[in-house]
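Hey, quick one: can you model this chain's 3D structure?
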Amino acid sequence: MVNDNIKLIFLGDITGRQGRTAVMSYIDSLEEKPDFVIANIENASHGFGLTKKNYEQLREAGVNCFTSGNHIWDKKDIFEYIDDAKDLVRPINYPEGTKGTGTQIFEIKGQKLAVINALGRVFMPPIDSPWQVVTDEIKKLQENGVEHIIIDFHAEATAEKICFSKYLAHTFNTENNALIKGFFGTHTHVQTADEQIYEGMGYITDAGFCGAVDSVIGMEFETSLRRLSTSLPERYEISENPIAQINGVEVLIDRTKTTQIKRINITVNNKEKERGDSGEG
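Sure thing. Here's the predicted structure for all 281 residues.
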């Protein structure tokens, strides 16, 4: 009997060199390889944006799809390669005409799986509302024969994430057929402990982040302290402490629903696992 279940790993915001190194060694160390790996990479290059060099490194290491957020534009070379990157999605609710795309479709085990990226609006920079944009996009994907949809909702407020996920599940999932198989929050870099399967959809409010443990969500303590305690401008510096955490979720998807979800929360010593990452910090 053919096993057409899809084992998918979603990794929270990769932050700086320590996050990249940890993720690459983690994927390499997996005895049972997943069918698909999605990672949020908006902080992957020195904490802000993604260089082409780092993008290619992570692709080679086994990341199949790259989601992002409000920092995706912070490295200038993104504008040179985003239109050609068929595995990279930027938030779909940027205005029409923005470079890149908010959705990518992949074929896994003969099944169509789409990944959508969207930005929240609560406590976030001004952006088009995701509610109608994402709803319309899901309808188009459904008409195109897509069987599975994964959403990375890059947002600050937990209530917005929970409400949006429930709205989409109620709108598109039924008891016997869940179109949306995963709704994973990103942005806060702090993993929540509420992973669950809701209406056949794997859910977590925030997947967490991949980066230095001894840090302030990936940034050095001292610079963060000065900026937060004085309210004066201070350039954030990425933490280079080699003890790194890997946060995310692993889900198992069958033809009709998500059947399993579990959190990934492990710590690695990058000094013991360096792979010669020469990209930007």
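One thing worth noting: Residues 6-272 form a domain with the Purple Acid Phosphatase; chain A, domain 2 fold (CATH 3.60.21.10).
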